Automatic annotation (TrEMBL):
InterPro entries: ChrR-like_cupin_dom, RmlC-like_jellyroll, RmlC_Cupin_sf. Residues 19-103 form the ChrR-like cupin domain. Transmembrane segments: none annotated. This is ChrR Cupin-like domain-containing protein. It comes from the Bacteria.
Length: 115
């Protein structure tokens, strides 16, 4: 896999990147799409009030909140929070304020209930 870089993500550099559709009111910028057994790495941008329905992690998922607040059933995670969701865990995700997160998935998630 060739080297991939994104500059100044923690200081707002993500604002200059192109985002495309992911889910309603959530957009994505792929840093490394899933390829073979390689994990997927992306930035997700949630508009205020956006959510992702309940889903199961089929592999490890890690999240770093870059801006705003991301929430799930276990709590609220502000800028600088690092979240690890183990394979087999389930939750739904939302952002009342809007947020941007750096996320890495070992494998795609399975949506359990769709809104």
């Amino acid at each position: 896999m060739p080297r991939t870089t994104r500059e100044t993500l923690t200081t707002g550099g993500w604002k200059d990147l192109a985002f495309g559709p992911f889910r309603e009111d959530v957009t994505i910028h792929w840093i490394q799409p899933f390829e073979g057994d390689q994990p997927g790495i992306a930035l997700l941008k949630y508009e205020a009030g956006a959510s992702v329905p309940r889903h199961r992690h089929e592999g490890l998922e890690t999240i770093l909140v870059l801006e705003g607040i991301q929430s799930d059933e276990a709590g609220d995670y502000a800028r600088g929070c690092y979240i690890v969701n183990a394979a087999g865990t389930e939750h739904s995700v939302w952002s009342d304020t809007g947020c941007v997160v750096l996320i890495q998935w070992d494998r795609p998630v399975t949506i359990l209930e769709d809104s």
